[in-house]
Amino acid sequence: MKQSSFYAMLFRMKYINRWGLMRNTRWENLSEHSLETAMLAHILAVIGNRRLGKNYPLDEIVLHAIYHDCSEILTGDLPTPVKYDNPTLRGSYKSVEDAACRRLARMLPDDLREDIAPYLSGEGLSEECRRLVKGADRLSALIKCIEEEKAGNREFVSAKAATEKALREMALAEAEIFLQEFLPAFSLTLDELEEK
Length: 196
Hints:
It contains eleven helices and no strands. The chain is mainly alpha-helical.
């Protein structure tokens, strides 16, 4: 049986730091971010299904969220201001990301590839579900900004405002509910959290 390096490569996500242009009080790696995005995507989908009459496929959304940034194992984390500053660069970077996803997929054994590769590239996810994962991704970024501010780091003030604005502009009802019900607790201390 041929050996596969796919998971050894995937487990390198912990070596990719995010927010490279910013001074961080605590670095966040890609592995942490992916887990948080998956948890946030899950609760957004649950909110949508329970409270808003949606029929989101929870497993699909969570799996897409887990793998949503895995191309960055090969590309690194390109800072948002750079990535989205220029439409030509954005298109070029998307091509690089797609190539990285294909490269990762080729590391999978042939008989397992079709079950995992779509999550690497976001293939097959409806636009509504894609927006939910993107909303979870932005929520994760917003929470990082709040944590840095809470630690006394003013470096993230502008990023927090821009991220919250982008999230609200998505007009995602599930995210609005999360912002009202869950986000305030991220500003609390451990003792305050235990009192709730």
